[in-house]
Every structure is written in C-alpha cells, then in structure tokens.
Specification:
Blueprint (H helix, E strand, L loop, with lengths): L11 H29 L2 H4 L8 H8 L3 H13 L4 E3 L4 E3 L2 H7 L9 H5 L1 H6 L1 H10 L10 H23 L4 H9 L2 E5 L5 H9 L4 E6 L2 H13 L6 E5 L11 E7 L8 H11 E12 L11 H19 L11 H11 L4 E4 L7 E7 L1
Parallel strand pairs: 3-4, 3-6, 4-5, 6-7
Antiparallel strand pairs: 1-2, 7-9, 8-9
C-alpha cells in the first residue's frame, strides 16, 4: 500500500529570503497610494527641477500641510524615488526619475498606472465576491481615475511612437495614410491614439468607436479643440456592431481586445468593415503564451491588473475573459475565427506591448 511522502523540512534561509521578498511586495503595495498622492497633488512635478528641498520648502511650494509632506518625503526616500542628503536634510528628484514620475508625455512616464490604484483597491470586495460566485465587475463601477489613468498611460506611446515607429512597421499602411485613408479605432477610449494619427496624416479621415458615452463626449471635444473635427469624429458604438461597409483601409484595436466581452465577435465585425486589402492593427500587452516566460515584473503587473480590471470587466457580462495575458496564440485564434487568413507579428522593439498586422 502506497504511503504519502512527508513534506521535506523547510529551508529556513530560503523561507527568510521569500519573507523579505513578500515584505518588499507588500511595502510596494502600501507605498502605491503615496505614489498616487504624489502624482495627484503635484508633489513630483514640484520637484521636477531637481533642486533639493526640505519638507518645509516643498510644503510651501505646493500649499500643502508640512507634516504630511514630511512623512510622504520619508516614504519616497525609503523607496528610492527621491535622493536624500543627510547633511542638508534635503531631498531631490533625479532628472531620470522625473521623466518617469513628473513629465507628462515622456516616453517612460508611467503615472497613469498610479492613477488606477484607488479604483483597484476600492473594488477588492467586489472582486472577492466574483472569486466566490463568478461574474465580474463592469467598467461602469470604475471611476474617472481609471479612464484618465488609462489615457495618461497610453498617451506617451501614441505621441512618441505610434506614427513614427509603429505605423511605419506596416509600409503599405503608411503609404495609404499619407495619400488619404479611412481609419477606425475600435475601443478608442478617450481618443488620444486617433488624435496623434490625425495630426500626423492630414489627408486621412478617422473615426473612433467606444461603448462608453462619457469617453466619446470627451474625445469629440478634444477633436474640436485641436481643429480636427472635420476629419476626426467619435461615435458610441459596440465593437461587435461596426458598419459592415467594407470601406476602411485601417482598423486599430489599441490595448483593448483582451478586455472585450467577445473578441471573436469584434474580429468578425472588423472583418466586415475592412476593405479587401485593408489591415487590422492590433496592439496588446507584451505577454507570452507561456506562463513561465512571464515570470518578470511586467508579467506580475499585467496579470494583477487583469485580475482587478481587464478580465473581470469581460466576465461581468459572461464574456471570454482572456485578460491581459491573452498572448499571440489567442490573438491568432480570434483573428482566424473572425475570418482573417494573414497574421503577422510586427518587428517592433517595445518592452510593454506587442504588435500585429492582420489581413483578410
């Protein structure tokens, strides 16, 4: 009769190493709200000039209460966000850190992620209920922090790389845009991707589709404010119900396919909207099909955000729930089910995203 093997005796050194790792993760989780506060209250921006300041000087500069500023500064120093001089008792924000924390539009600006933190923390009880009973949390339960945070996170990529690196990776598409093309962005959010496109390709026309009305209203106001309303508009419409006009040269889905209730239905809808020689440009998180390849900080981030937002928003409507780790194999499968036959992963070097051109 077989007997169960006893668990091996724990290695206490390894246990201690893992305890410190876990404490580090929990410290980061507790530090996250202070990063959010630093962003929302302009503390990082107030230090973006790199000049060393005391907590009193920073409080005066920002109009905030010194005691809170002092404790915030200590947390940021301990977390190595700020540089500290014990002789002068002043802290400073290194120029490289300012690019990440304070300079909107910088290629490495990531404070959009920080802005999402309150929603994700506040919705933990709802996520726990979904763990127990199924379903999920719809986007209607998230606040402006999530929508603005998403906009700020992706805008850096759109403004720095979309028209100068990502689109040129598809030479046939680039030529069409330069001559004059009809373009749609499905799941357009607050419209910043198409705003960058309209600015770069003045002979082309653009329309953005999103099922969240407030985003559409904001995006249309943005188009008008920038003088593009004659060739850039936004419409509240489901990704599964695009005009089956077969007259679009390019349709984009930017970091949103994995969130959708039915990516397959979206793919079929895009197929019907595209010209025979049109292209579907897909941007998705840079995640492998294999879990073992995603054991890194980005994998940790994307799986976590997926559980708290991407996956659960799809499951809230009994959707596919692919989540941010959708991966190239699932994207290819979705494209094939949508009727597409050509699938190419583009050679674009980017740590955060991967890119695909899909054609009929």
């Amino acid at each position: 009769m077989a007997t169960a093997l006893a668990n091996p005796a724990p290695n206490h050194e390894k246990a201690m190493q893992f305890a410190f790792k876990t404490v580090g993760d929990l410290a980061a989780a507790m530090n996250g709200p202070l990063v959010y506060i630093g962003d929302r209250l302009g503390l990082f921006k107030a230090m973006a000039d790199g000049q060393p300041v005391t907590s009193e000087e920073l409080a005066q500069k920002t109009g905030l209460i010194e005691r809170y500023v002092r404790e915030w500064m200590k947390a940021m120093v301990a977390g190595e966000y700020l540089k500290y001089d014990p002789q002068t008792r002043r802290a400073s924000l290194p120029v490289e850190h300012a690019l990440v924390l304070a300079q909107e539009g910088s290629p490495v600006f990531v404070m959009g992620i920080a802005q999402m933190i309150p929603d994700h923390y506040n919705l933990i009880p709802r996520i726990i209920e979904a763990f127990r009973h199924g379903g999920g949390v719809p986007y209607s339960e998230y606040t402006q922090d999530t929508f603005e945070g998403t906009e700020r996170l992706f805008e850096s990529g759109y403004n720095n790389f979309l028209t100068t690196q990502w689109i040129p990776a598809m030479p046939n598409v680039l030529k069409k845009l330069q001559v004059g093309a009809k373009v749609a962005d499905v799941g357009c959010g607050r419209g910043k991707a198409l705003l960058a496109m309209a600015r770069a390709f003045p002979k082309s026309n653009f329309v953005g589709y999103d099922n969240y009305g407030p985003n559409i209203a904001y995006a249309n106001s943005l188009a008008a404010k920038n003088g593009f309303a004659d060739r850039l508009r936004f419409e509240e419409r489901s990704a599964n119900a695009l005009p089956q006009s077969a007259d679009f040269d390019l349709i984009m889905t930017c970091d949103c396919l994995h969130d959708m209730v039915s990516p397959e239905a979206c793919a079929r809808s895009i197929h019907g909207a595209l010209k025979q020689d049109g292209s579907w440009f897909v941007i998705e998180p840079n995640m492998s099909d294999n879990l073992e390849d995603n054991i890194n900080p980005l994998g940790k981030l994307f799986y976590s955000v997926s559980t708290l937002q991407c996956m659960t928003c799809s499951l809230a409507f009994h959707g596919a729930g692919y989540g941010a780790g959708m991966g190239p194999a699932n994207i290819r499968r979705v494209a094939q089910l949508g009727g597409f036959t050509h699938f190419e992963k583009l050679s674009i070097d980017n740590p955060f995203n991967q890119f695909f051109e899909i054609r009929k």
